[in-house]
Every structure is written in C-alpha cells, then in structure tokens.
Design brief:
By secondary structure, the protein is of the alpha+beta class. The chain has eleven helices and 16 strands. Belongs to the UPF0751 family.
C-alpha cells in the first residue's frame, strides 16, 4: 500500500505526543530514545522525494497505454495455445513461402495457390487457421490444412527473391538431354535456356509442350523451380482474360532502368547487417556504377570501427533481417547523434536500394 509524506508525518506526530504525554522521571531514558528515533524518521522524510498519487489519472494513463499496446499487438507474430492458429509475417521462397521463420517449429508453409489467390509478397501479415473439426485429434501439425487470410499488406518496397517466367512452353534441345524453359529478361536480351530439374519433372509429371510458370533467382538464372503447371482447358481460359505476366514484369524492369539513370554524385553510403555477401556485391555494383560509394558492415565489427565509418556517411541502410539488436541500436543512436539519414529495410537488392536512396535525397 502506498504511503505519502503527509501520512508519515501524522504517524510520527502521534508517536511524539505519546512519548511526551507519558514522560516521567522513571522512563526518561526510554523517552529520549523514542523521541530521537521519531526525529530520525522526520529527517529522512524531509530528505526523501515523494511522488503525489493521482489514482484516477494513473488509471486513465494505464488504460491509454493498454489500448496502444492492443493496437501494436494486433500485428505481432503469435501462435495460439493449441497451435492451430498462427499469425505472422510472410516470407517468399523460390517455391511457396511461410509464416514465421522457416526454422521456427510453429512455422506454416504457404502453397503457391494461396500466394496467387491472395497476391502475397514478402512482408504481408497473414493468419493461418487450421481447417479441422472442433475436438478432432491431431497427430502431426505439418499435415494440417489451413485457411489463410491476409490481415495487412506490407508498405515496404521489397525486391523479389525470385523472378517468374509465366506461361512458358517446355522444350527439348537436340544437342542436350532434359527439358528446358526459355527465360527473357528484356526485349533486347537473347533468351536463356534453363534446364528444369529432374525432381520437378517427376513432381509435376512434365513433358515437352506443357505450359508452366517457372521461378528463378535474379542472381543466377540456372537456379530455378517449376511453381505451376497449367491444365490445357484452364490455360486457354487464363490467356483469354489475363495479360501475360512476363509483359508486366518487363514493364517493371523498364521502370527500374529509368531509376538507374540517376547519378549519386559521390554519395557515401554505409550498409549494416545482412549475411548474403553475393547480394551485397550486387548492391555495391548498382551504387558504384551510378557514381556512389558503398561500404558494408555485418554489425559484428568493433563498436569503434562502425562509429568511425558512420561519421563520414551521407546515408545509412540497416538490413533488419540479419543484425543483432545491440548493433541496430548502436547504428540508430549514432545516426541520430550525427544527424545522418538512415533507413531500415528487410530488402537487400541493389536496384531497390538505389530507389530508396533516391527517395531519401529528395
């Protein structure tokens, strides 16, 4: 129970009155000790700092904080007690995706059909609810079917971890065994023939002439996966009502090329975090070919080293997917201290980094 200053003084006053009222020759020493103890209490009270109690205001303030936490927690990753409802941020793979990190035992795989139906992209906030009857016994959560719902669409401009060659015809080559699909990035580029993996041929029962969607790495055209096989009747219906996705993709690439004509004028950029060195190299090339200077740190370097490089940076990019909290806080604090603009992003792609930098300079 909280006790305020006025209450303590009142209690001490009562004790002092009791000692003085009962003072006699026989209890003189006892009275002196009692009075001194109460005076010691008064001295301590006089030196102490007491906060006034405002119970109504505190309750209202706590209610406000609780309401704010409810808003924040609405998009917090969570798993229900029975494990049948999972909420979290979506991550795209080369084929399919997942809610929660892949190594999390509660992560839920998101199949391609759901990705298409909900038009998902990395960073969207999803809910996966198990599609089972109430009270049903579950022996293996990995075999449970889920109903997916997109609760919030990401506002981040995240570069794709995959490109998709849509409505492609599987072909054979006269000089090499296997099945192939042609990939064309831009209208002026020669097509690249990617070999389809044997495991995909078996999985989808592929043969020459089949129509597929093929996902591949932006960094390595040789690495890709079949993500969809069309049945011929559905394929005819699709091309009758939808524009080819490859045309949309080419237009997007042309827009990105427009951004690449900007000059960064010796702008010094420091990136911190992220563990994919190959993609960092791509980002470095994108920055340097526009006249900028890029320096990369993992966040594990000595504190003094990071701070010394931040001091001479014009812009800082923090990759939040792979960096410790202490390193992230160190970078943010020093950017604020030295008035350096910074951005936080999950994306590590070079072209999107350039676009974000251009936006920050405006």
């Amino acid at each position: 129970m909280a006790v305020n200053k006025e209450k303590i003084i009142s209690l001490v006053k009562d004790e002092l009155q009791h000692f003085i009222g009962n003072l006699s020759e026989s209890n003189l020493s006892e009275t002196v000790v009692g009075v001194r103890s109460q005076l010691d209490i008064l001295e301590a009270v006089d030196r102490a700092l007491f906060l006034e109690l405002h119970t109504n205001d505190s309750r209202n303030e706590n209610d406000t904080i609780h309401q704010e936490n409810e808003i924040v927690n609405e998009f917090e990753e969570s798993v229900s007690e029975d494990g049948l409802c999972v909420r979290g941020y979506y991550t795209q793979f080369m084929r399919g995706g997942c809610i929660l990190p892949k190594d999390d035992p509660n992560s839920v795989f998101v199949p391609e059909k759901v990705i298409r139906d909900l038009e998902l992209k990395t960073g969207d906030f999803l809910q996966a609810a198990a599609d089972i009857e109430k009270g049903a016994h579950i022996s293996n959560l990995r075999r449970v079917k889920y109903q997916f719902e997109k609760l919030k669409e990401t506002e981040e401009d995240i570069e794709d971890v995959r490109f998709v060659e849509s409505l492609s015809v599987i072909q054979k080559r006269s000089d090499l065994p296997g099945l192939y699909v042609s990939i064309t990035q831009n209208d002026n580029d020669l097509p690249f023939e990617a070999k389809i993996m044997d495991v995909d041929i078996t999985k989808f029962r592929l043969q020459e002439g089949d129509i597929i969607d093929y996902a591949y790495s932006p960094e390595n055209f040789n690495y890709g996966k079949v993500i969809w096989k069309y049945e011929m009747d559905k394929f005819v219906e699709k091309i009758a009502v939808e524009p080819k996705k490859k045309e949309i993709k080419r237009k997007k690439n042309m827009e990105m090329d427009d951004v690449s004509t900007s000059e960064l004028d010796s702008l010094r950029i420091v990136t911190v975090g992220g563990d994919n060195l190959k993609l960092h190299k791509t980002a470095k090339n994108e920055i340097e070919k526009r006249g900028g200077i890029l320096e990369y740190f993992s966040g594990n370097e000595p504190k003094e080293t990071i701070i010394s490089r931040l001091k001479i940076a014009d812009l800082v990019a923090i990759y939040t997917e792979s960096i410790s909290h202490s390193a992230m806080n160190l970078v943010k604090e020093n950017c604020k201290k030295y008035d350096i603009k910074y951005l936080c992003t999950k994306n590590i792609g070079g072209s999107v980094l350039v676009k974000k930098i251009e936006e920050m300079r405006v």
